[in-house]
Amino acid sequence: KNMAEGAVEKGIPGQHVTNNPTYQGEEVVAALGDAICEELRPGDVFLVKASRSVGAERVLNYVKNKLLHS
After folding, report:
1. What is the per-residue burial (b if ≥16 Cβ within 10 Å, else e) of 12-51?
2. Hey, what's the torsion of the CAs at 28, 31, 68, 65, to 10 degrees?
3. What is the per-residue pLDDT across 30-54, written as a single tens digit (0 to 9) for each?
4. The dihedral formed by the CA atoms of 18, 3, 23 and 14, expressed in degrees to the nearest 10
5. What is the C-alpha R_g of the chain?
6. How far is residue 62's CA from residue 22's CA, in Å, rounded to a whole number?
7. What is the reported pTM?
């Protein structure tokens, strides 16, 4: 079983989960960042738990920049 299947089994809505090997680099950052931004509402706080090796800080910077400039 892969991580995407496990996420859906644990209740993450399928439209917010991807296991698409054709995504690469900045395309992944934008897809994840956009999905996060769509869910956030004023006053929300969210936690990102990930290994530094997956580059989560790139997604966080994308989200921060998108929210600050929208």
Report:
1. eeeeeeeeeeeeeeeebbeebbebbeeeeeeeeeeeeeee
2. 10
3. 888 998 999 899 899 888 877 777 7
4. 0
5. 13
6. 20
7. 0.65
- Name the token pair of 10: 């644990």
In angstroms, the Cα distances linking 52 to 14, 41, 48 are: 25, 26, 11
DSSP per-residue letters across 1-64: --HHHHHHHTT--GGG----TT--THHHHHHHHHHHHHH--TT--------GGGTHHHHHHHHH
37 touches 63 (CB < 8 A) = yes
